[in-house]
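Final report, closing paragraph on structural work. Over the funding period we assembled a curated collection of sequence-structure pairs, and we close with a single example.
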Amino acid sequence: MAFVYNTKDGRRYISHRPQLFAREAMVSAGHHLASQAGLRILQKGGNAIDAGVATGLCLCVLQSDYISFLGVAPIMIHLEKENKTISISGVGRWPKNASIKWFNDNCSGEIPPGVSRAVVPAAPDSWLYALEHYGTMNFSQVAEDAIVIAEQGFAMYHLMYDHILTSKEDFLRWEATRSLFFTKGKVIPVGHRIFNKDLANTFKRMVRKEENFSNSSRELGIRAARDEIYVGEVAREIVDFVGENGGLLDLSDLSDFHVKEEEVLRSKFQDYEIFSCGPWSQGPVFPLMLNILENLNLPEHSHNSVDYLHKLLSSFDLAFADREAFIGDPEFVDVPIEGLLSKDYASVRSREFSIKSCFGKMPNPGNPWDFQNVLERRKINFLKPDEKNEEFQSDTSFCTVIDSSGNVFSATPSDSAGDMPFVPGVGATISSRGSQSWLEPDHPSAVAPLKRPRLTPNPVFVFKDGRFYMSLGTPGGDVQAQAMAQVFLNHVMFGMELQMSVEVPRVASYNFPNSFWPHAYIPGSVKIEESIFKECGILLGDLGYQVSKWRSLDRAAGSVCCVMKDHDSGFLLSAADPRRESYSVGW
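Its predicted structure, as stored:
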């Protein structure tokens, strides 16, 4: 059955899935088995954090082509009773011996695929920090489904099959990767079983460490499970593998590492408060886009009309230009975050928009320092990017949970197996997030010892009238903030139901350096889904855009998942994007 939405100007959209409602709890995630695992935890009495970690661990098995248990996992948590909202910086650091000079001397000025781009795995610490501090269950309980799925296998599905097939040479180059996804040199067919018994054994090793504290405290047991990855046998296996293959990680890089709990960034759009992650990620980009759009009178245009899309794309370009100039690990980069999120600054930036033409190339950054509480004027180091027509990397997943008490969990785990080998015996790839660094010293995400690469994954919370309203996130690299902004606007400005908001056609700008090495850059490039291309492609080209077409519901356009609390009806709502394998469940 199809579900129809008619806009005020007669535009007709069709949704392929019904709008889901629930009374007690909702889970939305990148694979239906992961969503079901989260729901089981909730039905056993766990809270949103327990369920979110269980869901995320299952995604590490079910989507091991897109994400890794030893990868990244930025997390946001809202605790309803305490009225507390926090983020966990689930991204690892460069090894202490990493430097631009090392890459110039040893890698010919490249950050090549393989262990040379490995940073400290952050995801295990991120999942277990959330569980220890805000969950109620043990690691053994939340890992149960992930262990069963990894050990007994799951069916190869179309998204995984197509992803591996289209990047076949990347996945074939390492033996451990070949043994997981291939049989007799061919990708395991759809419907046939995939196992990851090494990852199941890694989880079991962690459970055994936890059981040593079964008569002590839950928290000590979880820490013991965590320590197996960072100071135990698994840590040594990781470091030995990296060393044998010419990488930089050593035991002290792992043992010294801890994720950080941080306050969320806060901004406003009309009646909504936006909570996002800090500038160690591209978290500031989403509110920056909305701040600029707030000045461009979007309601005067029909949904997905040429002028509407032009304003969207221009705001995206302005926000990404500022990302390239200012956003990086705040422990190493002086980020003018107050200025970047200033409404006055957004007003100034919006004046650079022209209704008659697009930017054509990445615009210059603004000067947020003028809106920052500082006395001296700061120099802006902005690197004009060189045009590079390279392939764009694909990775990441997402999960979000809301429980019957109103607690909310959201995570965007990532790190593809296409550019990093699996560690033999461990069943996961080491975080390859070093690929989101630069070798230019003045770039805010330049390589430096113990620095965190600027992360693309960035979950978002939305509040209204001081109460939680929506959690949303998506895979998609640089498309993430763009896809989330369009879904959010579809719902709050055009009144679409949540599921419809996720499914309607989208656009994305590529008019800036891609976050992944070698940082592809195609000036003026935009991609639009097929139905928009038919209506608006030529007219956007007339404005100067270099327009290319995605097919309808293209996986490259992101896969947004959401959960929402309707305070008027008391119902919970969710949405899951059919562009990938995402699915929602609730009760």
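The chain has two domains: 31-73+88-260+420-436, 262-364+386-392+459-586. The chain has 20 helices and 23 strands. We thank the funder for supporting this effort.
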